[in-house]
Amino acid sequence: MPVLKPGDSFPPDVVFSHIPYTEEKGEITACGIPVSYNASKEWADKKVVLFSVPGAFTPTCSVSHLPGYIQNLPQFKAKGVDIVAVVAFNDAFVMSAWGKANRVNDDSILFLSDPDAKFSKTIDWADDASGRTKRYALVIDHGKVTYADIETERGSLQKSGADTVLASL
User: Fold this and answer.
1) What is the pTM of this model?
2) Is-contact 112 85, C-beta < 8 A?
3) Segment 71-83, tens digit of pLDDT
4) Is the dihedral of CA 112, 115, 118, 123 positive or negative?
5) Ramachandran area for residue 7 (φ above 0: left; ψ -120 to 50: alpha; else beta)
6) For the chain, which residues make up each domain, given as ranges?
7) Which residues are catalytic?
8) Closest by alpha carbon to 52, among 126, 147, 105, 145?
């Protein structure tokens, strides 16, 4: 499958790994049980913002990229966004811990794992050299892609940052 672009349908059978947040497993050292998260099914009738980072706990991702989405969550909701999700190649345990480390103590932002960058590879937005997901953002509205862009400069948030994606809604 080539790169997704506005007007395309979100691919069928996109499944990520996810550990749903629970209060009893709310401590950063607590491990939940990873479950399959069928994004194609879950997002079919919702407006979704999905942004991808090269890795949890990395400088640009932790200092700038994720915080922008956390801070702007009310504005995304006000624009009719049902789900905000972040994806990286890290396993579900790391993604869960990253959410807890950033005080996302609910599933207001989904922390999804794209093991082996499988989804990112299918849309040609994975780094072949490292095997990581690249930095990109998608808006999916009831199964249709309405925004899709990828960063071409290391550390840049010009195309995938919260402000840019929010302006596209």
Assistant:
1) 0.93
2) yes
3) 999 999 999 999 9
4) positive
5) left
6) 15-168
7) 61
8) 126
